[in-house]
């Protein structure tokens, strides 16, 4: 039954991706006043991260761009202010491929802010040739999952200091082809392919969200969500062959439409009593592969991630 369930999910997901390329996607249309709210968005120099910052700034939030390249971050902030002169956008150095950078960023953020209302874990790398992070982990898993895992738990006290807080993890529908390779998490010994690494990292985003919500519990003031933003032309595709890049220009949706599900998960009050779930097109996805719903895998990935990041005891959630 597991095989057939997963096959059906993969087929239906592929159909949904094609359908949503050519059919109109949903917009998040609720007006939300974010004055006094503090938001952190990773990977916001360009693409949907930058558009997310713009949309949240329009609603009055103070938005922090966590950027590996501060100069590019400042250029993004300048462009956002040119579109909306009242935008309150701050740039801070953050390299998700470096645990030292993440820890330094969290320290500085706590010195600057007394709370964090929304964390959007948007940054990511996709389909890149094999390389490793500063700490020796396969780049896609190390950046897309381990970096955000460490960041989230390092700033959890700020999230818990807000009246209500949300963590939004940007995953991808391609998680359906993913598997967590627990015995070879870095895909060494010629096991790596660019897509295999990406699939694993996006599945990890979903399992992390699920286990985080479980550990925080139903009474927590902090909720967590994962999502598929849609098929968007972004700089993630810089490693693609030219023919795929050209095709992408035809088949992808706009950046504005690509942030709608992120806004929905970050702002919609109808999700106040939901946490740990995965969303697409501004709605919860109820049928998923067994790899994405396996509680033991989620727990095992959590425990492995704690060990790999050498997570400090006071940041651990039991």
Report the span from N to C terminus: 33 Å
**Residues in helices, as a percent range:** 40-55%
Trace the largest sheet across and list its strands: 3-2-1-4-5-6-7-8
Strand percent estimate: 5-15%
Gyration radius from CA atoms, angstroms:
18 Å
Average pLDDT rating: 91
Please state the structural category. Answer: alpha/beta
* Shape assignment: globular
What's the helix count?
Answer: 12
Order of helices and strands: HEHEHEHEHHEHEHHHEEHH
Largest sheet: 8 strands, mixed
Count of extended strands:
8
* Uncertain ranges: 235-240
Task: Please tell me about this protein's structure.
The protein has 318 residues and is α/β, with parallel strands linked by helices. It has helices at 2-22, 47-58, 70-83, 99-112, 139-154, 156-161, 194-216, 242-251, 255-258, 260-267, 290-293, 295-308; strands at 38-42, 62-67, 88-93, 118-121, 165-170, 222-228, 277-280, 283-284. α2 (47-58) links the parallel β1 and β2. α5 (139-154) runs parallel beside α7 and α7 packs across α12. The two termini are 33 Å apart.
